[in-house]
Amino acid sequence: MTPDPTAPSPAPHGGSPFEIPLHPLRLTDPPQWLLRGLQDFLRAPAIGLFFGGCFVAMGWALMKVFQSAPAYVLALSAGFLLMGPLLCMGLYRVSQALERGEQPDFGDALLAWTAKPGALAIFGFVLLVLEMLWGRAALVIFAVSFDGMPDFQGSLAKLVEPENLGFIVTYCGVGAVFAGLIYAVSVVAIPMILDRQVDAITAGLTSLRLVLTQTGVMLWWGALITLLVGLALLPWFLGLLVVGPVVGHATWHAYRAAVGTAPDAGTTGIART
Known about the structure:
By secondary structure, this protein is an all-alpha fold.
């Protein structure tokens, strides 16, 4: 008998995170996740637009930061985008409710983080440490490349002049390392914490194992997210009003497609649709 994908999640997993089964993924799966994310957004547009508005507001806030501290803004903006799963807890809750055939509730979505505050706090602390290290590395690169902190007076054009090619390559290389690490440990971790009785370490290691074992698909998924969010930033961050919630909902479907049920559920995983 095919397991019901809308059934409640299994009991807590008591074994190693490396024992949690993972589904094989295909390169055609990520676009399907986005399609399902769009469908979820259209089924609960008001909630989605609220969270999308929060993304837009944070984008505007980052612009203000750039005016006073340009050395921080690139790492912070990239970290902000990669920490989307943590910010999209409400969207995951909406997708979870729709999956179960329930009516999404705005209050429940807004307070979704209260379901697992301990695990989320630990995981958030790990992400915060990584962000702080990323920011510190960015400052060091700025200082070494320019013999001190330059004053760009809010102009990105000065930052990307040809004579700064070495700085750009180094900065992007270091940023890619931190971005990849944050993505690897968080891509399905937050939805997993929300959906199952697991601790932050188990969720993070499961996410990392997924990326390491199915690297091609997960790189493709990360590239799609980066492309869509990057395009959404262009019109004064206004694209995030829709792209943000759609990607958030899609991340829930990525988690459900990739992570199997716990061994004590009596099955090897949920059905893939």
